[in-house]
Amino acid sequence: MVNIAVVIGRLAKAPQVRVLPSGLSLANFDLSVRRADEIAESVPIALFTGPEGVPSWQEGDEVLVVGRVRRRFFRVAGGTQSRTEVVADSAVPVAQAGSVAKVLEHARSLLASAIEEASAGPLACAAGEVPGAPPA
User: Fold this and answer.
1) CA dist 51 to 23, 68, 73, 94, 118, Å?
2) Confidence of residue 36 (pLDDT cuts 50, 70, 90)
3) How far apart are alpha carbons 28 and 14 in whole angstroms?
């Protein structure tokens, strides 16, 4: 199984950063993603970094994020709530072309490995077949 998310969007506002007891910094931000002729969607991102890696991005900066989708649960005022977010493995400003290319190549290699692993598994299909689909 694979859980990979690739998101390119503009920062809705500057990242909010807090230092965790472990010493890591956690930057939370929302990327505004607009597809052609659609209303913008907000994608929440969590980026764990060392103290020196906290992004200095500003509202409106275009950012590429590669990570995984997670849903976490937490208690608030006696109740339980959840939040679905992308946990970033990599996040770079789109203006940094060299970094963007490296991040996208990493995402491509993760997908290729997942496809290769899946094709060797018990649910492997012949080329072009879709599991559960009626025969052509």
Assistant:
1) 7, 22, 26, 22, 38
2) confident
3) 9
Most confidently predicted of 48-52, 98-102, 118-122: 98-102
How many CA atoms are closer than 13 Å to the CA of 44, on its beta-carbon side? 11
Considering only residues 115 and 1, tell me which one the structure prediction assigns the higher pLDDT: 115
Regarding the domain delimited by 5-119, which CATH topology (the fold level of the hierarchy) does it fall under? OB fold (Dihydrolipoamide Acetyltransferase, E2P) (2.40.50)
Helix (H, G, I), strand (E, B) or coil at 50: coil
Q: What is the dihedral of CA 32, 34, 38, 42, to 10 degrees?
A: -20
In the DSSP assignment, the letter for residue 105 is H
